[in-house]
Amino acid sequence: MLLSEATNPGGAFNLVPWIVFFPVIGLLVNLVAGKRMGEKFIGTVASLASGLAFAVSVALFFALQANHGHKEIFHLLDWINIGALNIGWDFRIDTLSVTMMLVVSGIGTLIHIYAAGYMHYDVRYKEDPASYVRFFIYLNLFIAMMMILVSGDNYLMLFVGWEGVGLCSFLLIGFWFNRSPDGTFGTGNSYAAKKAFIANRVGDFGFLMAIFTTFWVTHSLQFDEVFHHLDSGEVPAWAIWAIAMFMLLGVTGKSAQIPLYVWLPDAMAGPTPVSALIHAATMVTAGVYLITRSAPIFSAGEGVHNVVAWVGAGTALFAATIAVGQYDIKKVLAYSTVSQLGFMVAAVGMGAYAAGMFHLVTHAFFKALLFLGSGSVILAVERGHHPIGEDAHGDHHDEHHGHDDHGHAFDPQDMRNMGGLRKRIPWTFWTYIMGTLALAGVPIWAGFFSKDEILADALHFNIGIYIVLSIAAFFTAFYMGRQVWLVFFGEPRSHGAEAAKESPRTVLIPLVILAILSTLGGFMNFPEVHQFGHWLEYTLGHFYHPTEFNANVALGSTAFGLAALFISWLVYGQNPRQTAKEKDPLEKAFPGIFAGMNAKWWIDEIYEDLIIRPYQKLAAWLADVLDWRFWHDWFHERVIRDGFFGLTRFLAHPVDLGVIDGIANGLARVTQGGATALSIFQTGFVRNYALWVFVGVVSILGYLIFR
Amino acid sequence: MVPVEYYVGLSAILFTIGTLGVLTRRNAIIIFMSIELMLNSANLLFVAFARTFEALSGQIFVFFVMTVAAAEVAVGLALIVAVFRTKDTINIDEVSSLRG
Lengths: 707, 100
Prior knowledge:
By secondary structure, chain A is an all-alpha fold. Chain A folds into 3 domains: about 1-300, no CATH class; about 305-390 and about 410-590, no CATH class; about 605-695, no CATH class. Chain A is about 70% helix and about 5% strand. The longest helix of chain A has about 80 residues, at about 605-680. The N and C termini of chain A lie far apart (about 105 Å). By secondary structure, chain B is mainly α. Chain B has one domain: Helix Hairpins (Orthogonal Bundle), CATH 1.10.287.3510. Chain B contains 3 helices and no strands. The model of chain B has no long low-confidence stretch (mean pLDDT about 90). Chains A and B meet through helix 27 of A and helix 1 of B.
């Protein structure tokens, strides 16, 4: 498996395990040598590992093109062989998986490079420079797991990756596990990590049930065999429905849809590169990939399309409204991610798999860009607020950072503390604008093409979904406009914003590359040409329908988006807020609605009251009454202990002392008595003995003679 | 030729005398001699029947009995000497230490 073999197509396909091996090698090198080698080395190794995985993905892309899109399966190892269950470490190279590989490793590499610069400051603001290497180990592990997820040829391998990225997500959300999201010491980040893990666990339960059901009805977990079984019509309708619904539950967990989306906004507790890579661009899209991969299942079930599409559309609108009311720059983007994932799920739910995947790719570009941009903004404000050593080492920082002079925490993520950053950090500003335009769906930027394709499909599928998604798109443009006016325009509203410094080059280069991708990425699936769609058609087969370009939809959504941006200018841009303290203009106009948006419609509180509290009460009841009082106190004390004592007492007194000792003593007494009785014959006179012998002989002889 | 019944009768008489001797006498030497008498009564029967049935094995058996009896006499007399040394008597009624 040398790189030179990549020259012929078959050889390139044999490279596929290296998409997993390279990140694993990277993390092992950092694990062993990272602590001793310094940040430059760590960042280079990690970025190189991810970059090589990207290079392999590119080689696979060209090999696949040379192969006319025919899928290849590379068998690496046998894994499980039990009866009918034959599962191997098989890598599936088809147009869908290669698309995901390119996105994951491509965006992943850019974010590795970005993180090399970003984490340099972050570890110093958190006063723990030794964590730098830990971050890149987790990041490489994530790339490896995500690669397993997208390249597996069976549901079990997909599940391994699915769980692996969940683990990495947990580790990285809780990366600063001894702090709270506002930077003070506390358990807030650990809580967020736990929340993400538990919410995902609920989803994973659904996915596991889907896997079990699949194996039960089709006796296989390999994609092609499962779908072949479905085609044969032997699988009952209810089973298909159950698999699809359980899978949807898994998707709502991993891809943050209603009702399990609540973990994703809290996941912003992780460092910003993590938010960009895992919680915006790649991991959370795993659910969309799963549905696309399982297109035959979702298309076979009666009414499944409607359920999935409505879940997605509902999430898209619901999360978009929450995003309007947030002040935290990353929270806005988090809810935006939930909303955009809703768009994707709605698209794949409607059967517009290519449109969903297209939006997945463009969203990965611009949402990674926006998150990295927000990270750059946060870094700029934090550095402005509290300059630390600007030389390469930077470990001689002063004592009281993270807090301002008045003692209460300064939140560098709060948009109310920003303003006027446009001139201070121009590179970040211009790239951020590109991302905003892409997300808002302004023509020629990537988001316009992909979102428009989804909307056109929605109009064809169900007018209700079209309306819901259009309103969500309107809100999307509005909250992005709000964010840009708040962050970059007006006057600085804090010392940190006043003295903000542009980020280092390693941070800016990925931003520029992603800005270019966000701007031009839409052209890879230009309407009526559909290169991207046809590329996926090799995999999707008859599940692919090219979306007809609908000029009315395009014009309508463009007008909607521009109107929303204009309204946001009226509200936030025309009269920018002067101080960090004053109320939001929307809050003045619609206090009730804004309070709801700001409080995330109290969903966390409702979950708290409806699920967590009763659950805790039940747990407390079980612990106190059932476990402690009944089980420990009553059962252990009364039944086990007392029963045991009673039994031993019974065994000791009547049984041991009475029966056992009685038998032993009785035997002794009988023996003694018998011996006493027999001792009469022991006279000591030999002639007596002789007489008895004689009597004995006589009686035996008498018996023998007279019998 | 003397009929075999006579020998049987003589043997019975000898055996009875021996038995009575063992049961009634107190002197260990006498008892010992009585036992020898009983053995010899049995020997007489062996020889008598051996001749009657012309089977040589009876004769051979007598040799064995006499050999064993000789050995027995050696052991027995040794016992009596040992008893006499410790008890200064060979009256067996006085040798009753094993009385239970």
